[in-house]
Amino acid sequence: MRVDAYEKVTGKALYGADRVLPNMAYAALALAKIGRGTVSDVDTSAALAVPGVLLVETRFELASPGFIMGGQFGFQSLQPMTGDHIAYRGQPIAIVVAETPVAATEAAEAITATYQEEPFALHLDSEGATTLVQEEAIPLPFLADIKLGDADAVIDSSAVQIDATYVHPPQHAVPMELNGGVVEWQGGTLIVHEGTQNANAVRFGLAQQLGIDAAKIEVRSPYVGGGFGQKNSLLVHIGPLALVSQRLGRPVKLVLTRTQTFHNGSFRPVSKQRIRLGADESGKINAVVHEVDQQTSRHDLFIAMHNETSSRLYGYSAFRGRQRLVQTDVQTPGYMRAPFESPSMFAIEQAVDELAYRVGRDPVELRLANDTENDPITGLPFSSRHIGDCLRRGAELFGWSERSPEPRSMRAEDGSLVGWGVAIGNYPASIVAAHASLAAGEDGKVTVAVDGHEMGQGIRSTIALLVARDLGIPVGDVIVRVGDTRYGPQHLTAGSWGTASALPAVHSGLQELRKLLNVAGTGDVDVAAAVADIGHAVEVSAHGLGPGQSADALGQTETGHMAIAGPVFPGFVTFSWIAHFVEVHVEPTTCRVRVPRVVSVADCGRVASPVTAASQVRGGVIWGIGAALREESLVDDRFGGFLNSTLEEYPVMVNADVGSIDVDFVDKPDYQFNPVGVKGLGEVSMVGAAAAVANAVHHATGRRHHRLPIRIEHII
Ligand code: MOS
């Protein structure tokens, strides 16, 4: 079940910009119209003449929030409207506040400026794009390229060799909830209502930007209408919004337009992936070389961690990764659901499929033959790796044994070419230090506050179910508080660590609560009676840490920083796993690709909440189909920025594009990873899905596509 379903469908769930406060004013942004250069003479006179306009500002005293991947708080280090430099098209140059959103928008449109343009670079191979070797540019140990043995030599001496280069286009997350919210000052306290995955970063980033004490900032984000990574840090509109609200002495609401979110939030950068495989004649893979060029901005180095998953996929004996960052004139790209894993799996799992054809072996059988129990890189055992079960169960549910191996050998009744493809995926399992508090009231209800954010993935449901099952009380008697800095630090919820971080903290809190209520053991609890016996409501605090993680990590999250453990732990390595089976139909005359059915089987440890877990997988698969067949952010070579920055022009999958998606789980708890046995699921659900579609398209048509998306014009 989804415990907040009723609130959501009745409109009671309040998202950031849903707040309507007394005396509220409305803001709008004006954006730079050049690809790079400097701005001068921002003319606000026409804007100020629009009836209802209260304020127009073009410059702010705001410190940089710092870059989130540099250990600070902003999606990028560059704070617009603090200087003349324009780093990318779509960078805000002014903010307008008015009595109505219409007046604010009209006034923002009326702002003009003088620009001094400079040449800009938008592609990996553009003139002026700067290529850096990541491990030299960012010398952090966890960003060093992964290397094992002499992979090049092993490949050169292998009987079967595959060498292919794949290009994954830039993509944008398009969550239903646009970026934005409401800010207000109450006395000296700044209150921010904004959909975010990281209330901590908003709070501590604003403290840094405004030079005020974080204790004077509250961030309230009980519901987020989709995050996908774009809401993982402090965005550039919030600091200016706080200052205009302060100047006016009124609450101010700002919601970015979709086009503005395409330029003032992170996106999945373009990447080029070269895969070399060396195998024997049976298809046993001996070595892999994985080389990646990934786009970043001029002002920040967004990391690449593609090797982390590709090096763990199969039991090879040698691996060499090489990751480079290419600086271009865009806002800083960032995490977007399975940020590295989905693009790199599209590459490596197509190469593995190609290998299966080269050696004449069934693609499922070949993958099973390359399975391993130990992590090839560290030599440590995987705490759980049930990818074999995922493949066998998926093949059975899909009816894979009916597949005829030859490309172009299967047809549907309407004459469409039918393709069946398979691919697997993995995603690192991490835990972030988390704080929890549990309170039992005289009414028998239990209130749980824990670090985390509800962005639709169902974390509130997993927490409520854990508590309800443990105590034997109705789910409706559990109140869950997340995403609000009044109740806890609220570390970043991303990287598929949300549930695996929150549940162990709550689990530990439940044990404390049982002690206090004098109901030790595991039986059902009459909470109201236990509280009545004690004579007053009780509250406990607890925390959760990753295996081997120092308790110092708790203090780090209290000051707004990230404290992540995994996927390599003392004595073992943990990943989540998935296998996708996809059927495509390629219509004979139009070459349109349809996806009538998918079967996906995941190993995410214990399934904490079956309904929301299955929903996560369906969402990931749908996004994988979109990545394979539709999505691409087109850049504007004339003026900079992204061209198709609306939902009309950026085609995401809709219901009519999606057939049946059968989801199943191995559902084996991983108690080495944490005492609840859960691993991450949100992102692994997408990993490999695009590759499975591409492999199915190859099976249907006999052609491999090394560039996404695969559209009609590429198939014809
Ligand atoms: Mo996610 S891309 O780790 O929010």
UniProtKB/TrEMBL annotation:
Enumerate the SUPFAM superfamilies for this protein.
CO dehydrogenase molybdoprotein N-domain-like (SSF54665), Molybdenum cofactor-binding domain (SSF56003)
Could you tell me the superkingdom of the organism this chain comes from?
Answer: Bacteria
The reply to whether Oxidoreductase figures as a keyword in the UniProt entry is yes
- Keyword Oxidoreductase, does the record have it? yes
Q: Which residues form the Aldehyde oxidase/xanthine dehydrogenase a/b hammerhead domain?
A: 10-119
Keywords tagged on the record: Molybdenum, Oxidoreductase
The residue range of the signal peptide is none
Which PANTHER family does the UniProt entry name for this protein?
ALDEHYDE OXIDASE 1-RELATED (PTHR11908:SF132), XANTHINE DEHYDROGENASE (PTHR11908)
Q: What is this protein called?
A: Xanthine dehydrogenase family protein molybdopterin-binding subunit
